[in-house]
Amino acid sequence: MSVSEKPTDPAPEPSAPTRTTIFQGALILGGLAALALLAVEMRGLLNPLLVGVVGTVLLWPLREHRVVQAILLAGGLLVLVWLVSLLGGVLLPFLIVYLLAYFLDPVVEAAQQRWKAPRWATSLGLTLVAVGVLVAFLIVLVPKIIGSLEALANGVLANMANVQGWILDSALVTSLDEAGLVERSEVEAQLTAVLPGQLGGLIARIPDTLQTLTRSVSSILNLVTTVVLVPVLLFYTLKDYPLIERNLIGLFPTVQGRRTYLTKAGKIVGSYLRGQLLISGIAAFNISVALTLLGVPFALLIGLLGGFLNMIPNVGAILTNVVGIVIALIFGEPIDAVFVLVVLFGQQLLEATVLSPNIMSHQVGLHPVLVILSLLVFGATMGFIGLLIAVPLTALIVTFYQTYREEMTLDLSEYAESDVA
């Protein structure tokens, strides 16, 4: 060996901590591989809830990191949406009860402050009133609504011949027949085969569907749910509503240590919904009574439709006018259409000058352009239900954005601290 050559030093052996880290990493990788293999074998039994639980167990040791907190929060929201969609029928009575308690709680608070009435007494009285109104609606109004819909469907079917005659006698069909482009007999055969079969079939399903729903409501299970479960839930929810509300608010993250954004959004949306429901009920009553006194056909249906569509700002009034006038022209006299137009215009004037200024104590504060945009967006994505919830949901989104813009951060650390504790 020459002088210039130096002996090669042996490679340093890994220290004990390094060997421990490598060993732990190998165990983790082996555990993940075993877990993946087990998941593949159990793929027929997997569901979002089980996957969420497994993911939470895996990420739980790293929960102090904000990225992991965000992943857990997002995964929890997805699992919650899946559970709600799966248990929608079970949760529906609880949702209805909570909304009723939300709307009736101001009455309980007012009675408690003004007359020192205990919450249980006022809650019991309001529960009995709500049950009485529901029973009266099912006994009195539902049969009349079903009868009116059946009469409307039969009337539309009876007028199908008039529609065919109007189309056959129109100038367009006459011109095409004289030009030799179409034959009147062929058009008549097509109308006879298509219109009664398609449109008539669709309309005939309306009373059948309502009768099916009515029979399902009168079934034993739904009857027990309506008569026993819902009143009991309403009483206890209304009696303990402040405690339930505080616990629900506590589930949401804080903004700079506070949850004032929920209080603000709740006041805005709650005031809007309470006021809009009250105004819609008044509108349905006024329109139904006025059109009944004037002898307009299907006055009850037009009134209920006007009250229901009143929940949709701007668009609802237009739809009510169009449908009401069309029904009056088809099944009544031209003067009936004038009556419908006058009554609906009078109701809209009463709502704009008297009802809204006195009932809607807190406006949502949305620009009309934003309201129309929200109606179009929610209507396109969620259908008719989206039209009903567009304005309150938009108000919630705007409130959350304004709060986030002012505070700029959501504090989720308290959940990690409480979990560690």
How would you describe this protein?
By secondary structure, the chain is mainly alpha-helical. It folds into three domains: 47-86; 92-251, no CATH class; 256-421, no CATH class. It contains 16 helices and no strands. Helix 4 packs across helix 5, helix 11 runs antiparallel to helix 14 (334-359) and helix 12 runs antiparallel to helix 13 (315-331). The longest helix is centred in the first third of the chain and has 40 residues, at 119-158. The termini are far apart.
Mean pLDDT: 75
Helical proportion? over 70%
Structural domains: how many: 3
Secondary-structure-derived class: mainly alpha
Q: Which radius of gyration do the C-alpha atoms yield?
A: 32 Å
Low-confidence stretches: none
Number-wise, the strands total 0
N-to-C order of helices and strands: HHHHHHHHHHHHHHHH
Largest sheet: number of strands, sense, barrel closure: none
Give the helix tally.
16
- Could you tell me how far the N terminus lies from the C terminus, measured between alpha carbons in angstroms? 66 Å
Q: In one word, what is the shape?
A: extended
Strand content: under 5%
Give a brief description.
Helix 4 crosses helix 5 and helix 11 runs antiparallel to helix 15. Helices cover 81% and strands 0% of the residues. By secondary structure, it is mostly helical.
